[in-house]
Each structure stands twice: as structure tokens, then as C-alpha cells.
Protein 1
Amino acid sequence: MTSSRRAIMLRTALPVVVVLLLPSQRAVEVIYPGYTWQALGGGIYVHMWDDPLAGPIDGTSTVIVNDEDVFVVDTHINPAAARAVIAKIRAITDNPVTHVINTHWHDDHTNGNHAYRQAFPEARFIAHRATRSSLDEGWASMEDQRRRAYEAVRGRDLATAADAIEANDPDRAMTLRLFAAYRDALEPELPTLELVYPDLLFDDRMVFERGERTIVVQWMGRGNTDGDAVVWLPDDRRLIAGDLLVAPIPYAFDSPMVDWVGTLARVADLGAEIIVPGHGAVQRDMRYLAQVASLLDATIATVRDAHAAGVGYDHLAAAVDLTAQERRFTGGDAARAYAWRSFYLEPGLKSAWTSLGYPVPQTQ
Ligand SMILES: [Zn+2]
């Protein structure tokens, strides 16, 4: 073969090789706008909302491909993103999704259940018993509230409204932008959304043996919610933590904070090498978990001290000082600082106060 002929063959063969090799070898790709699909190795994949501080904020969905079936942990707030994950699963394996685990009841981890029920009618939906109770109490009304709120601002240019108040009230402008992003993503989905509730409930743990792999679905104590489940893969030393761990800023809405500290310590004792948080970057060491544990500790201590000094709930925010922690988490970044105030500090002080057993005035 002449060298020029070989060169031509190489040139024509190369794209074919690239196309054949890349899809299976690529570690990160986009299968739905705004999210990244990442292979963690060993048949484990995560589908992650790329910017955890931008709307619509969504939970990470983890896919575990076993020898004969597939487990999915959390299903996204946006069913369209769940459908993209399902299409990707089908491109990877012929195995059916048999088990869907909801780590807790918030709809950014459960709304996509419906897509799995449609695609895999035999699949079972697993959750802690307290998560099922919370879903029974709050899920339908949460989605009704969303429908009504989006209906009320349909067609309105919220970005322009946010621009108009940006200079005077940047936090409110950011809240408006987040809301607009949720509306745009969810309004088309809500009319056909069916709430598919977990039907396989546990109190302590469930263990599944799948060939070489053991999958432990476990409740390690109250934390971000009453019924947080973690999924622990002891052979791979991988942990799917749900919102017990959220990066880069934790969420603390109505959280039993005092219990959370102990729960996180038990989670740390598992000795995971890879931790998939409920939101945000996959962690490959314990540093971030330790940072969150220290934050929870500091929050509870400062609220307890304030209460002991006679500070009432109404003056709590002015009395506590978490600026050293704030610096650690935000690094001075404006988007992180907004998330710190809105997702951690404000709800977290109330959660810590309540969790310590102090009464909140009726008006709050
Ligand atoms: Zn979440």
C-alpha cells in the first residue's frame, strides 16, 4: 500500500474510530440541556444539574447498572430530564429499571418517578417510611402551589422584572430569576405530571445482592429531613448521600439540625471513597462532608448560646455570627453568598432553633 493510500485510509477510518470509541469512553456528556451525565466507573452514572446555584435547581440522579437490572436513585424535579436519563439507560443496557429509590420527599428528587413508571411499569419505588408520610402530606399541595404560581405569571417577562429591581434588591432579583427558571422548565410538565408514590417502604435498611455488588439502602438517622435514605455500595465504597450532603451550599429547610450532626458523623464512619451529594459536585474525599458537619455544629452552638443569653427568636439573625463559616462556603462569590443566605442561613437558624426545642412565635 502506498503511503498516500494509507494516509487516505487513515483519514477516513479515524472519524469512524472516534465515533465508535468516544460514546462509551467519554466520562462527561450532555444528554439534557443544563445537566451533565458522568460515568463514575463500575456501571455507575450520575446525571447532575450543572450549576447547583442556578434555576431550576435540581437533584442529582444516580444510575446503577447491575448484571441483570438497573437501580436509579432520585428522579429529578423535571420529568423531561428523567426521560433523557431513561433514554440513556436504554442506550447503555437492555436491563430494565427494577428499583427506583427516593432519598427523601422533596420534589427535586421525586417528580421524575412518573417517567419511570411509564417506561418500566414493573419498577418498585423505595423510600423510608417517614419519606412516604411526608409525600402523603406535602407533595400534592406542593405541585398545586407550583401550578397556581406559574399560572399567575404565565407569559410575563420575569427576566426584565428582575433586571428592573437588580440595583435596589439583588436578592429579590435573584429569587425572581430562580422562580422564572422553574416556571419555564416545569410549567409544560405539570399538567401531565402524575405523582408516583414509593410503594416499598423500610424503617432501617434494605439490602440487595446483585452478582458481585451489594446495594444497601439505609436510614442513618434524621438529617436534612426525617426520612433521608443513603445508598451505600460497600464493594465500591461509594455513597449516594441524598441531601444529607449538598454542595457547594447546604440546604436547611425545616431540617432536624441537632439530629443531622449525629447522622452525618455515622455517614462519615462508612468510609466512602466517592460521595455523590444530593446536589453538586461528586466528592472524592471527606473534606466537604467534614466542612458541613462543622457548619452544622457551629450553627447549633451559636443558636444555643444566643438563646442562653436571652435572645428571642425575632432577634436571632442579628445575634448569631457565622461569618467565618460563611467565608469558608462562599469565598466571597456573589451567587454562593445568595445561596448561603437563602438556602442555609435563614432557614437554618429557624431549623436549629426549632430543633433545639425552642418555641417559634406564632407569627413566623
Ligand atoms: Zn434536593
Protein 2
Amino acid sequence: MATCTVSPLLAENVGTGCGENAYKCYQCKRCTSGCPVALYADMHPAMIMRAVQLGQLDMVFDDRFIWLCTGCETCTTRCPQGIDIAAIIDELKIIARRDGRIPAGTPSAAMLKLNYDSFVRWGRMWEVELIARDVLRRPKSVTSWLSLGPKMMLKGKINPTIQRGDTLAMKRMVQTAESITSAKLRRQADAGGEA
Ligand code: SF4
Ligand code: SF4
């Protein structure tokens, strides 16, 4: 039987984290009609907004939609209520990581973490390391990388040599981002604990 965990604090916590008011959504679905990944999950942006309003944790966090979101912001630019939906989805990802609610079958969630680690380590993303770590974590991905990798290399999308970026600047950015995230989580905890 499907579960249905409800938290009246979800919309408040999202608002505390990113400053957006999910209750302003009136379900016109303009966000969904422009979303390039809405077809690939059971949820879509308007459904996510409704689920946040209702505090439906399982609908938001058990589906892979938020992890497919590319952050293109089409939804945000289309919303007649001026809601930054992309920011809400980013906030939901932060809450999902905090609460250990990343569903199985979402390699994109792990890939985002690998991206982040690569940026921190090299000051920029090093694609070869990213692919190697992805293959270590998901051996089956080797097939798609063997097919995709050479094409990406020919197009200059993968550089086999390490190109260091400004690692010091990156460390400062990471420290700033982590302190902002910690402050958000503290505010959410002060406002009533977990989502
Ligand atoms: S476009 Fe804005 S108001 Fe319309 S459904 Fe999406 S979030 Fe809600
Ligand atoms: S930001 Fe995410 S939810 Fe919004 S339109 Fe782009 S992919 Fe869809």
C-alpha cells in the first residue's frame, strides 16, 4: 500500500530556506507545460507545488522528478504568480539530502554530488574523474560511457588531462555556500524541525 506521510511544515521550511511562498501557486500549470523533463517522472512542477502546499512528503521525495530538474528556470519565467519554482526545487533537494530521502534509481542525484566533489578538488570539473567514479559506483554505466565518451571527447566536451581551476577561490565559495546552507537548516530546525 502506498504511504502518505504529511508534514504541515514542508511549505514553511521551503519558504525559510529559499524565501519562496509555495502557497501562492493556483495550479495554472504553465510551469509544467514548459518543463523539459516533466514527461520523464510521475510528478511535474505544478504537482510538486501542490504537494509542497499540502506537505505531502512521499509525493515530493519518493519520486525522481526533483532530481531530473535541470535548473533551466523555464518554470520560473512562466509563472504568473512570480514564484521561483526552480529555487523551490533546489531547496527540496537540500531537504532530501538532509533527511536521507533520495529515492533509488536516481543516478542524477549521485552525479550532482560527484560534480560538486570534482569542482571542490580541482577548482573545476574534471570529466574523466567524474566518469571513473560513476563507473566505480555503477558498473553498468560503463556501457553508456563507452558509447558516449568518445563522441564527447571528439566534440571537446571531455578533456582527458587535468585542468586545474582556481582551487582557492573554489574553497572560499564552498565555505560560503556551506555556511549559507547550515544557516538555512538551523532556521528550519528552529522553526520546527524536520520537514
Ligand atoms: S506556473 Fe506558478 S501558479 Fe501556475 S501552476 Fe506553476 S507554480 Fe503554480
Ligand atoms: S527548472 Fe526544473 S522544473 Fe523548472 S522547467 Fe526547468 S527542468 Fe523543469
